[in-house]
Amino acid sequence: MPKITWLLVDGAGLAGVGGRGPLGANLPVCILQVITSNIKRIADFLNSFDMSCRSKLSQLNEKLTMLERRIEYLEARVTKGETLN
Fold this sequence. Notes:
This protein has 85 residues and is mainly alpha-helical. The chain has one helix at residues 29-80, and strands spanning 8-9, 15-16. It is found in: Cytoplasm, Cytoskeleton.
């Protein structure tokens, strides 16, 4: 059976020997690894979500700019009395 190595975390969240975790409990290394892994997965998801949102907002901005230019063009033609046909 593999030996479980215990890593104690002090109140500041730093690795140490004999410290106590933020919740007042000593946590084994395997639990800390799971927590660290999950935090990394959340950070990766948030970074991916951020990039996806920025990309979609950029595409919407381009479409909006194109529509604004089209409206300005049509307004100028109407002001000059030109037909839109």
